[in-house]
Design goal:
By secondary structure, the chain is of the alpha+beta class. The chain has a single domain, classed as Metallo-beta-lactamase, Chain A (4-Layer Sandwich). About 15% of the residues lie in helices and about 35% in strands. The protein is built from 6 helices and 16 strands. A hairpin with a 2-residue loop joins strand 15 and strand 16. The model has no long low-confidence stretch (mean pLDDT about 95).
Length: about 280
């Protein structure tokens, strides 16, 4: 747990999974990226499934919901999913159940970010958090329902559509509640959003897949998954110096070792400077 002004931040894990290293690092040569993340025999790198619980004192806000538990064995193997823990188990350790979550914010709707938006119950998919309002960009929702051939595998409709009645669709930057706002940061998808958390002059930012791991702080280290890589570059150029100037906590969606850090500029590069105790 990290105190942020009056808020509490809890980084919660939904286990780990693995993706091809070339996909994760795009044009970066393997001899470079493998110094940061070692590849397994199938050229996959091990990644975290990091979610954030913000306890404001009045609301329990969940940012991202991990990969969930609905994959068949074939895909569990393909993606190397390891359930050392689950998001629901992590909430349980804090004394919280699914009915205690008031707000769910998804940066985007790829399967590894919205897996617990829904769950199976009596052979049907239903919202996991029955009292929550879910927030996502309108454009992301529309694209998730009608993806291109290039990114169709990244979206699993059953992971998010059953919660449609509880979902509020945003159009651009928006305050969700005092101290929590979203900022659209295009690149990975056109309408991906980062989440800012602010209390008593202290700030944190959940970067989603704009900067999925500490290794991706380097500006040209951009995933092959990104639909608009030059927009990713522009978003990183704009946002990362702000985070350094504001001395903000940075939260990575997929770094299994360093989910929280701060950043600063050194020699023209953005680097992580602080591992934050939780």
């Amino acid at each position: 747990m990290v105190k942020l002004g009056k808020f509490e931040l809890h980084v919660l894990s939904d286990g780990t999974f693995a993706l091809d290293g070339g996909q994760m690092f795009g044009v970066v040569p393997k001899p470079l990226w493998e110094r940061k993340l070692a590849a397994d025999a199938r050229n996959r790198v091990r990644l975290g499934l990091n979610c954030v619980l913000v306890r404001t004192g009045e609301r329990n806000v969940l940012i991202e919901t991990g990969i969930g538990d609905k994959f068949e064995p074939k895909y569990t193997d393909i993606y190397g999913i390891e359930k050392t823990t689950t998001l629901l188990a992590e909430l349980g350790k804090l004394g919280l159940g699914t009915v205690d979550i008031d707000i769910v914010i998804n940066t985007h709707l790829h399967f590894d970010h919205c897996g617990w938006n829904t769950r199976r119950e009596d052979g049907q998919h239903v919202p996991t958090f029955p009292r929550a309002r879910y927030f996502v960009q309108q454009g992301e929702w529309e694209h998730a329902l009608h993806p291109t051939e290039r990114d169709a595998a990244s979206y699993v409709t059953e992971f998010f559509r059953p919660a449609e009645a509880q979902t509020e669709f945003l159009e651009g930057n928006c305050e969700i509640l005092p101290g929590i706002r979203v900022e659209v940061t295009p690149g990975h998808t056109r309408d991906m959003q980062c989440v800012w958390i602010e209390s008593e002059g202290e700030r944190a930012c959940f970067l989603g897949d704009l900067v999925p791991t500490e290794a991706h702080l380097a500006l040209p280290w951009i995933m092959a998954f990104d639909l608009y890589p030059m927009d990713t570059l522009a978003s990183k150029r704009r946002l990362l110096p702000q985070l350094a100037e504001l001395d903000a906590l940075v939260i990575f969606s997929h770094d299994a070792r360093t989910p929280l850090t701060k950043v600063r500029e050194e020699g023209g590069r953005m680097v992580a400077v602080t591992e934050v105790e939780m």
